[in-house]
């Protein structure tokens, strides 16, 4: 049985690490007498203007992306304040980080510093307790394995093609277990590779930032047709075994001067774009739609949720940036029925858990998510199970920084044994 002394933080140290794009990031190692926790901050390419700010060095080294100042902040400012505190007191630890930073967007310490530190402390506390991280964070009720949202065709800023929408997603909702969901998804992913290679040539199966293929496509129906064909070729049925999803990331193709969206070489006003989404949902069994409008357009989020929310998970990412303040605005406007969750958008685990709680209380589904510039840290896999999110978004079944999360979920399902439950279709069933 661990004593209180076993949980006291004895050291906090920042170390340089590289993310999946080869950019520097912050790794924090937190130690207690009885355990060690390691947290690594990921980084996004498609970012909300509302996110916590990463601390970067600028200049020529690392292309301006260096984190020497951030690491110095960990080792000279943060560490002295955390040493001697009880690692189990997560809200206290995160409160100290917020107090030291003293800005609304973590710009003094850096969101990369606070994220890595907050996660490292939680892991150290779990290790000191001698229990799995998902169990430490979620208790004995943490047993739901999330349905994976797999970005298998990349567009937007994640690829070098002409697709406006950023992610085209397969959802193995009809599987009986998480392990079976992974098997089915891998089979479709390989089927998709054959389809793309035959139709577009071998270079079409080069992968983008999140492990999805980046074929030379120009119009948004092309990838959806490809996914439908790949699912059929793998022996599965769209609308039963699999659903499809889209992350439009529409802030990236919104023209504020024209107040319109550029899709497939044409300009769409918000109403026309909404009509396009309705057509795609009807044609392709789409059950998930993220950031269909730009991050300041609560009105049209509300309109599409009113129109499609009974059968589609309409999710805010850039709209909310994992920040309770913006989420509450969305709740008031009935803007979405789903909310993306990225710890580094807000900068601490405590604020993230508060955000999830507020979303849940409002009937909004939390969707745990990776970043395009991610790392081998599987933290979000444990987080998804801990909070019973039922959905995780962490890329294609390729690239080790994505597979680290899937492999961790396979391990969790195995460790739970017959207690494990796979969310499956439940997050996507018709809602009133």
- What is the number of independent domains? 2
CATH fold type of the largest domain:
TIM Barrel
Physical arrangement of strands within the biggest beta sheet: 5-6-7-11-12-13-14-15
N/C terminus separation: 47 Å
Described by the principal axes of the CA atoms, the overall outline is globular
| Second CATH tier, the architecture of the largest domain | Alpha-Beta Barrel
Structural class: alpha/beta
> What is the CATH superfamily of the largest domain?
Enolase-like C-terminal domain
Q: What is the strand tally? A: 16
For the record, the CATH class of the largest domain is Alpha Beta
Kindly provide the radius of gyration, computed on alpha-carbon positions and rounded to a whole number of angstroms: 21 Å
Helical proportion, percent range: 25-40%
- Residue share in β-strands: 15-25%
Average pLDDT works out at 95
Biggest beta sheet summary: 8 strands, mixed, barrel
| Secondary structure tally, helices | 13
Order of helices and strands: EEEHHHHEEEHHEEEEHEHEHEHHEHEHE
Short description:
The chain is an alpha/beta fold. The chain contains 13 helices and 16 strands.
What does this structure look like?
With 432 residues, the chain is α/β, with parallel strands linked by helices. It has two domains: 4-130, Enolase-like, domain 1, CATH 3.30.390.10; 144-428, TIM Barrel (Alpha-Beta Barrel), CATH 3.20.20. It is 38% helix and 18% strand. The chain has 13 helices and 16 strands. It has helices spanning 68-82, 90-101, 111-129, 133-138, 178-200, 221-233, 270-284, 298-308, 324-333, 343-346, 349-361, 379-386, 400-416, and strands spanning 9-18, 24-32, 36-40, 144-145, 147-154, 167-171, 243-247, 254-255, 260-263, 266-268, 286-290, 313-316, 338-341, 365-369, 391-393, 421-422. The strands form four sheets. It has an eight-stranded mixed barrel, surrounded by six helices. Strand 14, helix 12 (379-386) and strand 15 (391-393) form a beta-alpha-beta unit. It is globular.
């Amino acid at each position: 049985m661990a004593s209180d002394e076993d949980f006291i933080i004895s050291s906090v140290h920042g170390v340089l690490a590289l993310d999946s794009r080869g950019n520097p990031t912050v790794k924090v190692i937190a130690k207690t007498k009885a355990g060690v926790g390691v947290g690594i901050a990921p980084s996004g390419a498609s970012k909300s203007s509302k996110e916590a700010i990463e601390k970067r060095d600028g200049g020529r080294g690392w292309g301006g992306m260096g984190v020497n100042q951030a690491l110095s902040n960990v080792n000279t400012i943060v560490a002295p304040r955390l040493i001697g505190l009880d690692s189990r007191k997560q809200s206290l630890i995160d409160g100290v980080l917020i107090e030291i930073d003293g800005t609304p967007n973590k710009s003094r310490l850096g969101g990369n510093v606070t994220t890595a530190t907050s996660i490292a402390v939680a892991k150290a506390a779990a290790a000191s307790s001698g229990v799995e991280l998902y169990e430490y964070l979620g208790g004995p009720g943490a047993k739901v394995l999330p349905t994976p949202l797999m970005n298998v065709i990349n567009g937007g800023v994640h690829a070098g093609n002409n697709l406006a929408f950023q992610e085209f997603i397969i959802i193995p909702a009809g599987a009986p277990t998480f392990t079976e969901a992974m098997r089915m998804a891998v089979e479709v992913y390989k089927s998709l590779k054959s389809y793309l290679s035959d139709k577009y040539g071998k270079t079409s199966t080069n992968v983008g930032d999140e492990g999805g293929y980046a074929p030379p496509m120009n119009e948004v129906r092309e990838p959806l047709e490809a996914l439908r064909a790949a699912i059929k070729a793998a022996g599965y049925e769209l609308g039963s075994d699999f659903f499809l999803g889209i992350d439009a990331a529409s802030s990236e193709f919104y023209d504020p001067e024209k107040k319109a969206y550029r899709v497939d070489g044409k300009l769409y006003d918000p109403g026309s774009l909404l009509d396009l989404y309705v057509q795609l949902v009807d044609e392709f069994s789409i059950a998930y739609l993220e950031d269909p409008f730009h991050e300041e357009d609560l009105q049209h989020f509300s309109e599409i949720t009113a129109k499609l929310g009974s059968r589609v998970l309409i999710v805010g990412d850039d709209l909310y940036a994992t920040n309770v303040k913006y989420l509450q605005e969305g709740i008031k406007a009935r803007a979405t029925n789903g909310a993306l969750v990225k710890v580094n958008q807000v900068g601490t685990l405590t604020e993230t858990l508060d955000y999830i709680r507020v979303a849940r209380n409002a009937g909004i589904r939390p969707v745990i998510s990776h970043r395009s510039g991610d790392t081998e840290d599987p933290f979000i896999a444990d987080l998804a199970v801990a909070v019973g999110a039922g959905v995780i978004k962490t890329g294609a079944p390729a690239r080790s920084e994505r597979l680290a999360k899937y492999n961790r979920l396979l391990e969790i399902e195995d460790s739970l044994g017959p207690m494990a439950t796979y969310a499956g279709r439940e997050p996507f069933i018709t809602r009133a």
